[in-house]
Amino acid sequence: MRLALALNGSRGDVQPGIAVALEMADRGHDVVVGVPENLVDFARGHGVDAQMFAPDTDDLLRSPLIKRDLKSSNPRTRARAIREVTEFGAATMDERLLEMADGADLVVTGLMGQERGATVAEFRDAAFVPLHYCPVRPSRSVPVPLGPLAALRAVPPLSKAVWRLVDHAFWLGSARRGDVALRQRLGMAAASGPLGGRLRSAGTAEIQAYDPGLFPTLAAEWGPQRPLTGFVTLPASEGDHPSDEVSTWLDAGSPPVYVGFGSMPLADAATTFTHIAETIRAQGHRVLVCAGPNSDAIAGRLANPEVMVVGAVDHRLVLPRCVAAVHHGGAGTTGACARAGVPSLIAAFSADQPLWGRAISETGLGATCGVSQVDGTALPDLIRRILDPDTALRSRTFAQQMIEPFRAITSVAEILERTA
């Protein structure tokens, strides 16, 4: 089988796809992988012969579009921001994916760009399967992660109706325009409506690459066409270990609280990280800060032997040695914390992050707030909640019940093989 895997987004969006590419190659399939320009070296470093598929997503994440407009309380501003994110680098991705899918039996995308992937697969006469890293289809049991709309889950039929409304709004306001242009260029008839409904009608599998335990009723509601496979993670390699500096610091004291916001830049990183670190230290714990794109902004600001600042770490190796975590609520980080048995405080920015915050809070595995609240007076109580022994016990118990990584990737691979 020839598989074209088109991955867009941040590192957390791309990692599960790289794991899928490695598994499918190990099974003897011909795999073509495209990733954003800034993640080509990252993918190749994990043994994938990746090519540039999308523009640099770090530039997008640092832009006012993400830092301001996508979090706006004005619906029009948010709708425009979503449309611009959807169309970011569209011309480049259309060209690249058409090349990648030439001769492919199966096209796979992540959440970002799935409409484009489905259209190109149809044009190339290939099967199509999306990888979803969080629930994005209409549901009675998962609330729409948009402010007050999240409360509508208390009325299940209304919750599903709102999801459908949001689904149609995204299609009409963001995805449809690019899809119409691509289909016209390829001489194809216009699509009949939002992608989810079309895939459902066609019997196409939509892989839900996260653990069903965080959404206890979703598997029964959606059925086998949207299988919850468990979190898909990169495989461990022999000799994997934290850097000597990080290992030495971890060995030198009690398990720390991990603090990191992935690829998300903070408006005032120095103030935010300082406040979080001081609050954690006041409760008697060491702090491991993973600063990522905020590294330059906090350089030299957290000088304390009980606080270590690094650029990036391997969550799989470091989180099991931590007592709790404060993070942005990306799907990958959330899954890694859950698998490590580590309680989370999710300080959500936007997109799917409030959804993960709610899931973690409602399953008793931690707490959640908006990222702006971590600079306020509520933080000490939130930190106490994730350090509570009962929360720690629930987190360890949940970790033991999660779908294991090898089972998750095996399930995904088998679905792809059956589909093709």
Secondary structure elements and their pairing?
Layout lengths: L1 E5 L4 H16 L3 E7 L3 H6 L4 E5 L2 H5 L2 H4 L7 H13 L2 H11 L5 E4 L4 H10 L3 E6 L23 H31 L8 H8 L4 E2 L9 H5 L21 H8 L5 E4 L8 H14 L4 E4 L4 H4 L8 E4 L4 H4 L5 E4 L3 H10 L3 E5 L4 H10 L3 E5 L8 H9 L1 H13 L3 H15 L1
Helix pairs in contact: 1-19, 5-8, 7-8
Describe this structure in words.
The chain has 420 residues and is of the alpha/beta class. It has 2 domains: 2-231 and 404-419, Rossmann fold (3-Layer(aba) Sandwich); 244-401, Glycogen Phosphorylase B (Rossmann fold, 3-Layer(aba) Sandwich). Helix content is 47%, strand content 13%. It has helices at residues 11-26, 40-45, 57-61, 64-67, 75-87, 90-100, 114-123, 156-186, 195-202, 218-222, 244-251, 269-282, 295-298, 315-318, 331-340, 353-362, 379-387, 389-401, 405-419, and strands spanning 2-6, 30-36, 50-54, 106-109, 127-132, 207-208, 257-260, 287-290, 307-310, 324-327, 344-348, 366-370. The protein has a 6-stranded parallel β-sheet with strand order 3-2-1-4-5-6. Helix 13 (295-298) links the parallel strand 8 and strand 9 (307-310). The termini are close together.
